[in-house]
Structure formats: C-alpha cells, structure tokens
Amino acid sequence: MLIISLDGDRADADAVLALHDRFGAVPVAAPPLHRVPGGRTVVADQTIVVEGHIIAIVAVEPRLEIAFGVTDE
Predict the structure, then answer these.
(1) Which of 19, 27, 53, 71 has CA 20 to 30 A from 46's CA?
(2) pLDDT tens per residue across span 8-54
(3) Phi, then psi, of 18 in degrees rounded to 5
(4) What total number of domains does the chain contain?
(5) Among 49, 47, 27, CA closest to 38
(6) Using CA atoms, how far apart are residues 68 and 52, in angstroms rounded to an integer?
(7) What is the pLDDT, as a whole number, of residue 73?
(8) pTM confidence score
(9) Which residue from 34, 41, 33, 32 is spatially nearest to 15, judged by alpha carbons?
(10) 35-54 exposure pattern, b = at least 16 Cβ within 10 A, e = fewer
C-alpha cells in the first residue's frame, strides 16, 4: 500500500493521519514542501513500484501529477 498526497496541505495531512490510525504505518509520497507527517518527498520523473503497480511521478508542482501502470510480474 502507498498513500499519495497530491497537495501536501493540511487536509492531506489530516487524511494521512486518519489512514495511519486505521492501517498503521504506510508509506506516503508527497510533493516538495508538504505538511504530511511521515511523507517522503518525490520528484518529477520518479517511478515507484508497489505490489506490481507502477506509479510514475509526472510533475510535482503545483501538485503531484501521476500516471499508473502494471508490471509484467
């Protein structure tokens, strides 16, 4: 599981905290200058593979723009 914070604003931070309460520690991808506790900053053109899914970070400003795909595995 991966949480993706598109804006990194206070509303995203609150949502991530609620998801952590429900699911425990889950990795969080967030834009630069985010306010999300435990969020890791991602950069444009970065690729993340999670459980057979490919998440491509297309852009990070003014908010995250992402594309999804599936691995061959």
Answers:
(1) 19
(2) 999 999 999 999 999 998 999 999 999 999 999 999 999 999 989 99
(3) -65, -40
(4) 1
(5) 27
(6) 11
(7) 64
(8) 0.86
(9) 34
(10) bbeebeebeeeeebeeeeee
What CA dihedral angle connects 30, 54, 1 and 7, to 10 degrees?
Answer: 20
Q: Look up the domain containing 15 and give its range.
A: 3-70
**What's the residue count for the chain?**
73
Residue 25 token pair: 């520690």
Q: Dig out the tokens for 16 from the structure.
A: 């991530």
CB 39 within 8 A of CB 54: no
Q: What are the CA-CA distances from residue 46 to residues 11, 18, 19 (Å)?
A: 24, 26, 24
